[in-house]
Structure formats: C-alpha cells, structure tokens
C-alpha cells in the first residue's frame, strides 16, 4: 500500500518529559482517569473537510497546502486516493473516529444522480479502510452551503426545488452514514438564516426548517438508523444571522417544533465566542436541557472576528470543557471532534500531525485537571452551599411547582427583610482552579 506519510511513525505516548514533537506528552489512550480510559473519555475524531479537503486558501490568496495525495482533479479516483491517505493519518495519530460532509469525501457530479454514484464509489473505500484500521465514523453530514444553489439557504430557501434537492442530498447522506456504521448525523445550517429581513419571511422559513427536520426524523425511523441526530449552532458567517445562532436559540427552536426528543447539540468553541458566549456557557445551556451530545474542538483568535477554527491549546478551555462533560456523565454517541485547520503558513503534511498532537494533549490535560477538581470536591461543595437556603421545605415546594406568591409572602413578612447575602467568592474559586492547572 502506498504510504502518504512515510516519514511519520505511529504516534506514541512519550510522557511529559519527551522532546519529540511526534510523541504525545499527555494523551495516553490506555491511562485510566476516573472510571474510564482517556480513549473512552475523549473519543477523538478527525474531520475530513479541514484536514484533507482544505487547500488553506483565504479571501486574499490561493491555497498553500502541499497534499501529495491530491492531484487537484474532481475525479472519483482522486477522492478514493484521498480516503486512503486520510485513513493512514487516522491510524498513525491514533484517532478512533472521523467525521465528514458528503462533498468532502466524494466530488459533486453534474446531476444529483451522478453525485450519488460518486459517493457510492468512495464509500466502498471508506468501508474497506474502516474494516482495515478499526477507525469508525463519529458522524456524517451533508454540505448544504457550498454550491451556489444554496445561496438563499437549503431547508429555508424560498426556492422549493432547492428545498427538495437538499432533502434528497440529506436522505443519501443519512443512508451512507448508516451504511458506514456512523454513531450520529449532524445538521449544520451553513446558510439557514438571512442577510436582510427586507426580503425574508422568517416565520415561513422556520416552519420549513422544522418540517425538513421532522421528515429527517421520519426517514431515520424508516431506515432503522439508531444513531444520534445533532444540531450545530453558529451565529453568523456567512449570513448576518443564522437561525441556529447559539445553544439557547437551537433549544427554543427544537421545543417550538416538538423536535427536542429527537435532537441533541454538537457545540463548537469558535461558534460560541462568535455568539458572544464562553464555551462553558453553551455546554451548560445544553446540559441543562439534557441536550449536549458532542463537541467540536477548536478555538478562535480573539483579535479576529470570524471563524478561524484553530486547534485548541488553551488548557483552561479544555479543562472547563471536560469538567462539563464529566459532570454530565460523559459522552454516549458523541466525542471530541477536531473541527480545526492548520494555519495557512503551516502547509506541509507533517503539520497536520503537530496540530492534532497538540490538540489531543491539550484535551488530555484538561481531562486530568477536571477529574482532579471533581475528586477534590471543594468546588462542588461551594456551589452546593451557595444554594443551601433553597433546601428548606418552602424552597423545595417552589422548585416542585407547589408554592404560590401568597405562600412566599407569608414566609417573608415575619422576617422583615431577606437574609444577608453571602459572597460569591469568584476570586477564590479562580485561585482554586489555578491550583489544579
């Protein structure tokens, strides 16, 4: 078999003192943290689009990426070769999962029928490579944003034919995801939003989006796909406003259209910051509704106002992410998916390894720190004690919807005033967190 990364061995765990840039310093897949191994906790996934389909172009210049497996053609043979290079990478980096859009793995044809046929030919290779390596599909999805037909959206397009085309494309992508044993399927509304309300019937577009997702749920049952369905929030770019703008907007939409029982959220740090939130906020919002399913692992540059999709290296960020994930009991079908791309200046194939090693080490450190904080117990105890006044009989009655304003007035009148507040101790808790970093 042709080797596309001949100079790179299988990446091993070298430990914190290793000076080899092609070794893990902190990610040891078989090391037990709490009750699971790191591999089981983190469920790392490599994305196809940034890692194998991104030429590293930007609005000001052509692509710089050196990808010896890619001849630049829009051929099935080129896509099949790319698939083999991808699995060599997955195997050498030690990622148990990968994720893709349909148009990442196979070229779009002149017609929908031809596109379906192209995808089928590449799926044969993906299936063989999965069997050879043991790497599995975390989730699949359909690219409903790149082709000019989707300029006004896909499920929210004012053009009914575009809506129908998008449905057919998703139908095929779901079938392929099922065929490859995917653990889930993600809906990312790349252009499901508006640039101006002067030409938009927002209510009708949202109704169409809700109907589209209900049809997907129906087809999921029809074909016997038992994987999870995810919605991925993003506030803007390319549209001024996208309907899945953040976790709260997605949860509200899912409840409004009676879809919440069928969907969880796939959250991304860079999308959270573009929405004006921290990733921990988005995760807690989803967890509060029992709807956190998976995360995309990346970060943005605070000096740039767009989706830079950089690899995560901030240990505070990864520790906060893993604290949320551990507290909710861990992933079931989701994982830590590296929706991240190397910088345009990092154009050589080996840079893909350096980037993923750094991201995997950062999340391994975050996992160990989060577990240590939970084992210590002081952080949870502080939060529990901060709300201790609610543990009275009337507090429980309020929380269980059994108390009224009159009950509360009768309780507080004899007191004359509310009890004194207790300090939030933010700085002390930040110091505590730093002790574990």
UniProtKB/TrEMBL annotation:
Cofactor note: Binds 2 magnesium ions per subunit.
Gene name tied to this protein: xylA_1
Subunit structure: Homotetramer.
Lineage: Bacteria, Pseudomonadati, Planctomycetota, Planctomycetia, Isosphaerales
Sites where the protein binds Mg(2+) 1: 232, 268, 296, 339
Catalytic activity: alpha-D-xylose = alpha-D-xylulofuranose
GO biological process terms held by the UniProt record: D-xylose metabolic process
Main location: cytoplasm
Protein name: Xylose isomerase
Transmembrane residue ranges: none
Localisation per UniProt entry: Cytoplasm
Binding residues annotated for Mg(2+) 2, in chain numbering: 268, 271, 307, 309
UniProt entry keywords in alphabetical sequence: Carbohydrate metabolism, Cytoplasm, Isomerase, Magnesium, Metal-binding, Xylose metabolism
GO cellular component terms given for this protein: cytoplasm
Cofactor: Mg(2+)
Top-level EC class as recorded in UniProt: isomerase
GO terms, molecular function: magnesium ion binding; xylose isomerase activity
EC number: 5.3.1.5
PROSITE patterns: XYLOSE_ISOMERASE
